[in-house]
Write a structure and sequence with these properties.
The complex is a heterodimer of chains A (288) and B (401). Chain A is an all-alpha fold. Helices cover 73% and strands 3% of the residues of chain A. In chain A, helix 1 packs across helix 9 and helix 5 packs antiparallel against helix 8. By secondary structure, chain B is an alpha/beta fold. In chain B, helix 4 packs parallel to helix 5, helix 9 packs parallel to helix 10 and helix 12 crosses helix 13. The relative contact order of chain B is 0.13. Classes of the chains: A mainly alpha (288), B alpha/beta (401).
């Protein structure tokens, strides 16, 4: 029974992890930009949900719909005005740029919201779902389903829509795509916008589960890194598989080796994957 | 805008350099105390509390003309340095405050770990140092002569707690302990294990979680499978809010749930709402304690009143202990009648007095041994004292959902 409960915990956590990593993976895979801002975007989305709920009574699920276009616009503008200027530079330079932007955003949030940990408490709470002896919190289940839904939507956008095909084309071969008439700069900005959208939309989901503070940004970023390497860069199903793998490994690691070694185990797995399958579980160049 | 702030920074730097330069002159009128604090980074909420307490004390002292040193009164100035929640930087900041800023006395950085790390610097320069927030005995077991702490050892928290639970909830047999893998949270968890075993309870689960853990679901599922009577979790406020929320997520209920250190803070109750109900905890101080002191605040009531006037909130134990570290230093300087470090150190070692914070007498290691830490429980959103009997505001309620 305990085994089933731990497996369920891991799956639910994995769904959330997938959502954290999907946008990050997309930007890294397509733009070759390691977006250090990703964690802070999630936190900012969390604050949006927190203040929306406590001040205006807007349910966090509704906040997702508000956050999505806002963060898409923010990401698009940021890419168009700043990051596109550096896009041809070595990856270290764009990393430095997003690192600098992240310092500004994180410190701005520290100044505006302080470092205090806030918790979004739903009133009434969503409660828990009991399946026999199995207990799962409903907020986590909904958040996981929404996360998987969002990730699935991103996958469909990339594989079915014209915009998505353009993004994939640019990822496969930038010059060829440009010759075919794809506006590369616009596609880059769209991609970054989508990445920001995923981060901003996962903020309200995570705000229902974890405390919100500017200091949790790097924690989310760290998870996103591990998941991307596990699943493979730039692949949405990869992010999903990577996220779920990490969730399950952490859960069982905690059971078998004690909670203090859960993270150690996930990094051991990371190193093992890097050695044996450096492209990640589902990493293949050029596929969404 | 950037240029302006740069100029502002340069002029501040020049100005402070001038101040440091002129300090031998100013030392005649001013007592300067160094305080390295984690003003930014993960521990910044704690630093804010410490600053609130220290600033209130400085204000109270300077209002009466300063600390009485022999025949004259000298005003107090605290020199804060931000060590960014990074312990090695706390050590560097301590060294800098002593050697470059030439402060007269020191306050320790936050928490047991950083206080211990910085204490070797203070000892090297024979600098009397007061630790406001270091309770673990491992901080004081180095044979140092210049470090004094205002928190009693960790078992003074777990012993009365275990006593109370053993007496009032006789069915409590199985105890589960989940501890943050960090100096203080782990040390107090180990004391809890001893206190529970001493009373014939069975510790069925004892695990540590890594600093920065976001998901406790697996550990909690495992705890739940053992249906413990008493769940004891340690960590700082963010960890404990997370653990309590995830306990509710799994439908974990137990007769007694104790968390240290977090429930003493207002943020714990506001962060959990009804989920905080009936969680027990213990701390070294509570605004409900009542002491008549010989210090600048006079009594606990007066301290609470001044604190409320300045900050609009009731003080918690962190805020009180940082004010108390100022009070203790002041009493030692006044007893010594000089700023001579050796004499002030001896006055601290010989101290036996009562303050708004409680009776102060240091043991041979420099750690206070005279406090009687209150045990409390969150009841209807308020921290209600349930022990010691003299100041009790309510009785232990069993059942935490």
């Amino acid at each position: 029974m305990l085994f089933l409960q731990i497996l369920a915990n891991g799956l639910v956590l994995g769904g959330l992890y997938a959502c954290i990593a999907a946008g990050f993976s997309l930007v890294w895979g397509v733009l070759n930009v390691i977006n250090i801002l990703h964690g802070s975007f999630i936190v900012l989305g969390g604050y949006l949900a927190f203040f929306g709920y406590t001040q205006y009574g807007i349910h966090p699920f509704v906040s997702i719909a508000i956050a999505a276009p806002l963060f898409f616009a923010l990401g698009y503008v940021l890419q168009r005005t700043l990051i596109n200027r550096m896009i041809a530079a070595p990856v270290l330079l764009t990393l430095t740029l997003t690192f600098g932007l992240d310092l500004m955003l994180a410190n701005g949030m520290l100044a505006a919201f302080t470092a205090d940990f806030r918790k979004l408490i739903l009133d009434p709470p969503l409660g828990i779902l009991r399946l026999g002896a199995l207990v799962l919190p409903i907020d986590r289940i909904i958040a996981m389903l929404l996360a998987l839904g969002l990730t699935g939507l991103l996958y469909l956008t990339l594989s079915r829509s014209r915009m998505g095909r353009a993004i994939v084309a640019v990822r496969m071969d930038r010059e060829a795509a440009a010759l075919m008439g794809v506006n590369v700069k616009h596609v880059y900005a769209l991609t970054f916008g989508l990445g920001a959208l995923m981060a901003g939309a996962s903020g309200p989901l995570l705000a229902m589960i974890f405390p919100i503070s500017p200091l949790t940004g790097p924690v989310y970023l760290g998870k996103a890194f591990v998941i991307c390497v596990l699943g493979g860069l730039g692949s949405v199903p990869g992010a999903m598989i990577g996220g779920i793998t990490l969730g399950i490994v952490e859960s069982f690691g905690s059971l078998w080796f004690g909670p203090e070694h859960a993270t150690t185990l996930s990094f051991v797995l990371l190193i093992a994957i890097l050695l044996m399958r450096p492209e990640g579980l589902l990493g293949r160049k050029g596929y969404a | 805008m950037k240029r302006l702030s740069f100029i502002a920074r340069v002029s501040t730097a020049v100005l402070s350099a001038c101040l440091v330069w002129s300090s031998p002159l100013m030392a005649q009128e001013l007592i300067r105390i160094g305080a390295p604090l984690p003003i930014t980074g993960p521990l910044s909420p704690e630093a804010k509390k410490l600053q609130n307490g220290i600033n209130l004390w400085v204000e109270a002292v300077n209002k009466v003309g300063g600390i009485k040193v022999g025949a004259k009164r000298m005003k107090v100035e605290v020199v804060y340095v931000d060590y960014q929640s990074n312990t090695p930087r706390a050590v560097q900041a301590t060294e800098r405050l002593i050697t470059q800023d030439k402060v007269d006395f020191m306050f320790s950085p936050f928490g047991s770990g950083a206080a211990k790390a910085a204490s070797s610097v203070s000892e090297k320069y024979q600098m009397p140092t007061i630790a406001a927030t270091a309770s673990s005995e491992q901080v004081y077991d180095q044979g140092y002569k210049y470090l004094f702490g205002v928190y009693t050892p960790n078992q003074t928290l777990t012993e009365p707690l275990a006593d109370l639970v053993a007496k009032q909830a006789s069915g409590v047999q199985r105890v589960a302990i989940l501890a943050r893998n960090d100096l203080f949270p782990l040390a107090i968890a180990q004391e809890m294990e001893k206190s529970a075993k001493k009373r014939g309870m069975n510790v069925t689960y004892f695990e540590k979680y890594a600093i920065g853990t976001l998901d406790h679901a697996s550990a909690l599922s495992q705890i739940k499978s053992q249906s413990p009577h008493w769940i004891f979790a340690t960590g700082y406020i963010n960890d404990l809010i997370l653990i309590k929320k995830q306990m509710a997520d799994q439908g974990i209920e137990a007769p007694v749930v104790t968390m240290i250190a977090g429930p003493a803070y207002k943020e714990f109750v506001s962060g959990l709402g009804k989920g905080a109900e009936n969680v027990t905890s213990a701390a070294w101080w509570h605004p409900a304690v009542r002491y008549q002191g010989k210090d600048v605040f006079g009594s606990t009531e007066n301290f609470n009143k001044l604190f409320r006037e300045k900050y609009g909130l009731d003080p918690d134990y962190g805020e009180a202990s940082s004010a108390a570290s100022g009070v203790v230093l002041q009493l030692a300087i006044e007893a010594a009648g000089t700023l001579d470090r050796q004499k002030v150190r001896d006055a601290l070692a010989a101290m036996n007095t009562v303050t708004f914070f409680g009776p102060i007498k240091f043991g041979p290691t420099g750690q206070v041994i005279s406090l009687d830490p209150p045990v409390f429980q969150v009841q209807k959103g308020k921290q209600v004292v349930i022990l010691p009997t003299a100041i009790k505001q309510g009785n232990l309620q069993l059942g935490v959902k």
